[in-house]
Amino acid sequence: MTTTILGAAATIVPDLILEYNTERESRNVLHNIIGKAEPDVSLELDGLRFGTLHLFFESKTDAWVAYDALGTVETWELTDTDHPEIDMNFVRTASMKMGLDPVSRKRWLIEMDYQEVI
């Protein structure tokens, strides 16, 4: 399995994606009409994916390089050979956390929110 996160100035290769969560918001609009029991509906396409990625690194150096790179102004391309359905272009949103794995005290975890972009 190979996961790659590619930007214009950096390539990040986490050892593992520990967690991938995604959501899509409906953009359908309900219109309540006076004197009518049921609403009129404007059907729209769902929005793009957003969610959280948890990246695992065995190397402290790789984790810190990734953390610094992901903190830049950048659009990223994620590809995963085992799970091509998660491939996407994205930007980081909200906060990003990095921490030392409490069990091994040798491995590093990055948790970040993302928004898919085209």
Please outline what is shown here.
By secondary structure, the protein is mainly β. Helix content is 9%, strand content 47%.
Give the class from helix and strand content and strand pairing: mainly beta
Question: In what order do the strands lie side by side in the largest sheet?
Answer: 2-1-7-8-9-6-3
Low-pLDDT stretches are: none
The main pleated sheet reads as:
7 strands, antiparallel
Describe the SSE topology.
Elements: E1 3-6, E2 11-12, E3 16-23, E4 29-31, E5 40-42, E6 50-57, H1 60-70, E7 76-80, E8 88-100, E9 108-117
Account of the 3D structure:
This protein has 118 residues and is mainly β. It has one helix at residues 60-70; strands at residues 3-6, 11-12, 16-23, 29-31, 40-42, 50-57, 76-80, 88-100, 108-117. It has a seven-stranded antiparallel β-sheet. The relative contact order is 0.26. The model has no long low-confidence stretch (mean pLDDT 96).
